[in-house]
Amino acid sequence: MTRNTFTKIKELINKGEPVGIKFFDDQDESDIIDSDKLFCEHIINARYGESVNIKSQRCYVGEYILGKDVDVPYDYYLKSGRYKNKDFALSAASSLPRLERHFSSILIAPISMFADGLDFDVMILYLTPEKAMKVVQAYAYHTGQRSKIDTIGAGSICSDCTIIPLISGLAISMGCKGSRKHTKYDEHELPVGMSLDVANIVESGLAKIPDTHD
């Protein structure tokens, strides 16, 4: 069977390439690192060609979302001034989708680095609103289903675009303060995440739907 190279999805992107994320359940500890970078920093670096295999990363909220820390990070959000009071900060932080499985490491790499026999779990890309629309349309072409945007403006890369696709397949985020501050993707770009199955559906649908201005 020919491996999908996601040519149509790559055509949606103005800069870099799609990023693949793979969770491993059991890997040799010598092959992975404790990173001093943020999860979203690794994603943006992979967009431009860097690959890394990590078991932890520097973001306090990210460690909770990736299931490494059991403490809900409401205090961080409360101190940041993003929520009116403790109750709202706790509600917001508790609502963040998080990983509910064990893993030994996370491979973060450009899609082109995934060789035959190794598939990603989640693909992340940064798109203009019009290109994100085409992802939604391509998915609907084969499913007839609406795509729901589920976000609170926090944890956009780790929670919205990594964990939600693992749960429901497709996620479109508005971004968040942390990821936009630390990784500086363009202000007109939306992070989009999709599972491998959905990426295959979208790739096929993109070849069928009409162009925006047809």
UniProtKB/TrEMBL annotation:
<protein>
    <submittedName>
        <fullName>Protein clustered with O-phosphoseryl-tRNA(Cys) synthetase</fullName>
    </submittedName>
</protein>
<dbReference type="Pfam" id="PF02596">
    <property type="entry name" value="DUF169"/>
</dbReference>
<dbReference type="InterPro" id="IPR003748">
    <property type="entry name" value="DUF169"/>
</dbReference>
